[in-house]
């Protein structure tokens, strides 16, 4: 694969810049934040061809799928796309600081999660780099909180942890750095799930490790690669599998919760075949969210399997 | 010790759903992974979780050590006997 892997793109160098912008927001408010942000974004978009083309490719595919109902893949909309990303990064930081505690969040399908929580059962939650997924901490807060163990890749985690620790030293979510699922980690996660906690793992990015199994399934009318790891983890932990997808509906944050399986069982003879429908169901949820909130998709690297590149994807 | 061997063989069969294999088919000293019983890394994870649940073992983050414990039924039984908390 010659295309740059997302893990090497350094999360767009945004994290360091975000610290400055968080300060601007805190001192002056959201509009000055935006005014300061756009020249930086414009410079970023113009100098970072990989991210720019990835955004345009995504907008192009979505535009075709939606019969023209989503933003046209123009440079202006690419800029808006990155603007939405920066605003969401700000919202994530504010969520961690507890500053968005009163902001409205629509939650669709909350019962699936609360039913498990109230039964004292845990599970695996697959999620994606869409919208402000930090808001899923708010789902359970009305009564008893949800204990979340978020699995992250080291390269990102260290920088994010620093920023987020700075933001809220008492953050109640555990970030666990996992690049390979080893036995000690699996056992530790099994114990947490047995105590009714949830393990959160992104299922929209193929991990860094080359041995990792990859599932190919349809996403926005072309073949894309998804990791098998989250589903294997759910099968090892023998627990329910849920998808939690964040997004927006207009100005309001939105979260979709779906149970994908009561218990994931992968037959030894052909685990791959048993994972495909789960990954496909997840991809369909992503697709629905992209159609509903087109600019909240935050995977700015070549996402689709190269042989399925759409004809206009090369336009920078 | 022989009882524990048998218990672990049963646990392997139950945990991994090895329907076509019986306790008698598992050689106590044969490798569990690769050439022997032919288990893979995902089986190993499932087995680790099941062993922890049953015996309250704490597994080291040191993977070389874990690999030694999981070499065969015999080595697993020795490990369980020494490290079990329930």
TrEMBL record, chain A:
Pfam family, one: Lip_A_acyltrans
Biological process terms in GO annotation: glycolipid biosynthetic process
Entry-linked InterPro entries: LipA_acyltrans
Gene Ontology MF terms: acyltransferase activity
Compartments it resides in: Cell inner membrane
GO cellular component, one term: plasma membrane
Keywords in alphabetical order: Acyltransferase, Cell inner membrane, Cell membrane, Membrane, Transferase
Highest taxon in the source lineage: Bacteria
Annotated protein name in UniProt: Predicted acyltransferase, LPLAT superfamily
TrEMBL record, chain B:
rRNA processing in keyword set: no
InterPro entries per UniProt: ACP-like_sf, PP-bd_ACP, Ppantetheine_attach_site
Carrier domain mapped to chain residues: 2-84
Keywords from the named record: Phosphopantetheine, Phosphoprotein
Matching Pfam families: PP-binding
Keyword Phosphoprotein carried by entry: yes
Tree of life domain: Bacteria
PROSITE patterns reported for this sequence: CARRIER, PHOSPHOPANTETHEINE
NCBIfam families cross-referenced by the UniProt entry: PRK09184.1 (NF006617)
Name of protein: Acyl carrier protein
Taxonomic lineage: Bacteria, Pseudomonadati, Pseudomonadota, Betaproteobacteria, Neisseriales
């Amino acid at each position: 694969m010659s295309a740059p892997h997302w893990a090497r793109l350094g999360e767009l160098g945004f994290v360091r810049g975000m610290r400055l912008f968080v300060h601007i927001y805190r001192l002056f408010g959201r509009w000055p934040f935006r005014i300061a942000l756009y020249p930086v974004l414009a410079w970023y978009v113009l100098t970072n061809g990989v991210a720019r083309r990835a955004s345009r490719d995504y907008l192009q595919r979505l535009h075709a799928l939606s019969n023209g109902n989503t933003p046209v893949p123009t440079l202006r909309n690419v800029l808006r796309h990155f603007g939405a990303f920066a605003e969401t990064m700000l919202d994530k930081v504010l969520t961690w600081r507890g500053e968005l505690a009163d902001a409205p969040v629509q939650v669709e399908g909350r019962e699936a999660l609360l039913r498990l929580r109230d039964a004292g059962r845990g599970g695996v939650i697959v999620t994606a780099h869409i919208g402000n997924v930090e808001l899923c901490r708010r789902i359970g807060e009305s009564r008893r909180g949800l204990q979340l163990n978020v699995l992250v890749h080291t390269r990102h985690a260290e920088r994010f942890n620093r920023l987020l620790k700075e933001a809220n030293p008492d953050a109640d979510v555990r970030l666990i750095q996992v690049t390979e699922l080893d036995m000690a980690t699996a056992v530790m996660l099994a114990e947490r799930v047995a105590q009714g906690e949830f393990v959160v793992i992104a299922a929209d990015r193929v991990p860094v490790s080359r041995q990792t199994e990859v599932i190919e399934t349809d996403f926005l009318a072309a073949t894309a690669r998804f990791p098998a790891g989250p589903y294997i983890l759910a099968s090892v932990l023998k627990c329910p599998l849920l998808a939690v997808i964040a997004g927006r509906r207009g100005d309001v944050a939105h979260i979709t919760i779906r149970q994908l399986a009561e218990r994931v069982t992968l037959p030894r003879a052909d685990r791959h075949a048993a994972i495909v429908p789960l990954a496909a169901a997840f991809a369909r949820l992503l697709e629905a969210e992209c159609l509903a909130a087109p600019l909240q998709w935050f995977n700015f690297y070549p996402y689709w399997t190269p042989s399925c590149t759409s004809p206009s994807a090369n336009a920078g | 010790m022989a009882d524990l061997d048998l218990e672990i063989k049963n646990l392997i069969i139950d945990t991994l759903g090895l329907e076509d294999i019986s306790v008698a088919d598992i050689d106590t000293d044969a490798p569990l992974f690769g050439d022997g019983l032919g288990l893979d890394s995902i089986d190993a994870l499932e087995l680790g979780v099941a062993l922890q649940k049953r015996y309250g073992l704490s597994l080291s983050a040191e993977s070389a050590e874990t690999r030694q414990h999981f070499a065969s039924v015999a080595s697993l039984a020795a490990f369980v006997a020494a490290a079990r908390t329930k």
